[in-house]
Design the sequence.
């Protein structure tokens, strides 16, 4: 399977993120480029690919290029199907941040397990939504879902 060599975010139209969100974006980008598995279906050229992500209205656009720079593929995912899972994820993250400040470790672990379960569900939804457009493994889906979350401060 091929991979993503670079990942770039088109921030046109996105609000300027607060420093902590900007840090989350940087970490998500780093993690994604360090380890991933990403292949386009035939007849697309084989990677590695450069990925440019952009948000346009209610869609997340994927623009992929070959190492030489020529376009390899472009497609968009409507974010509507992610709305509820993103909302749930942001709510559980807020609960987790509050728990860290006020609750004992056992309760923090319970909330963290729920947070991870929602993140996994979002990752699996992303894999399903990319069916026929790109093949990714679960760790790559997890990293991409983290990046999608980092692009949406507070929800969609």
Sequence:
């Amino acid at each position: 399977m091929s991979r993503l060599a670079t990942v770039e975010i088109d921030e046109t139209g996105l609000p300027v993120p607060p420093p902590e969100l900007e840090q989350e974006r940087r970490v998500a980008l780093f993690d994604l480029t360090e380890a991933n598995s990403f292949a386009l279906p035939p007849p697309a050229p084989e990677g590695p690919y450069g990925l440019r992500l952009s948000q346009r209205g209610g869609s997340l656009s994927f623009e992929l290029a070959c190492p030489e720079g020529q376009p390899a593929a472009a497609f968009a995912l409507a974010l509507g199907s992610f709305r509820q899972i993103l909302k749930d994820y942001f709510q559980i993250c807020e609960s987790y941040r509050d728990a860290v400040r006020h609750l004992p470790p056992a309760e923090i672990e319970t909330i963290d397990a729920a947070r991870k379960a929602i993140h996994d569900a979002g990752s699996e939804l992303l894999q399903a939504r990319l069916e026929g457009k790109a093949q990714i493994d679960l760790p790559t889906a997890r990293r991409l879902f983290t990046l999608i979350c980092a692009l949406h401060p507070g929800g969609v």
Remarks:
- Residues 105-129 form the longest helix (25 residues).
- The CA atoms of residues 36 and 139 lie 7 Å apart.
- The chain has four helices and six strands.
